[in-house]
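Dear support,

I submitted the protein below through the web form. The confirmation email said the job was done, but the results page showed an empty box. After a refresh the structure appeared. I'm attaching both so you can tell me whether what I see now is the final result or a partial one.
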Amino acid sequence: MALTKRIIPCIDVDVDDDGNAAVYTGVNFENLEYTGDPVELAEKYNESGADEFVFLDITASAAGRETMLSTVSAVADEVFIPLTVGGGIRTRDDVKETLRAGADKVSITTGALERPELITEGAAAFGSQCIVISVDARRRFDGAGEHYVDVGGESAWFECTKRGGREGTGVDVLEWVREAERRGAGELFVNSIDRDGTEDGYDVPLIRAVVEATSTPVIASSGCGGPEHVHEVFEEAGANAALAASIFHFGEYTIEEVKQYLDQRGVAVRR
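What the results page shows now:
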């Protein structure tokens, strides 16, 4: 029996002008606009048939602050499906405190790139199933990469970025995900800066390249504009799960509608 594909809504959380946690939506990791209250959205998605839920503190790493754990706890109280929390996780203790606040998994980007041993430490202490390595990738069409794929007839490589996509690293995504897998990552959360918020579809060449480079489950993120894009990233790239934000936040589609679309096309989903 085929493993079912997962549909995962995500909220990007920041601190508003009054110091309160709020959900924002943007394009290419920029131009953020207020979208709603994180706890209210968590409750909504818990009741809507989501398979999992992702909470990302999108400025914690860039601002050098810790994840907003009080808000994580409030969200965890409303969510009875697996909860992944990311943003500002830099140490083993950060992992511990985030799990203690109610997360089932932690998503790590900058902290792992700056100190890869964090993956090994986290997997050893809490289990690989808790450690999700998030990759904020961007396309580059120059000669600085190690692994190239065809993107619209051009040869491109994918660079890991850090601090919410604000800084390049020069690290090739495919080299990095292989290292993350060797160190014990239980899942790979692959974001495309080029497709983020565009609703033009997932970056299929990126997702396919990561899927082919590793045996670790891959969550595709960034660019979903409708059920057809979810179907595409499952069928053409082999992703294990698809994450979306805007189409659910703004009521363009429901999770049930996406699952129904997939079910009608022979994709095994949880119902």
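Response: this is the final, complete result; the empty box was a page-load delay. The first helix runs from residue 38 to 46.
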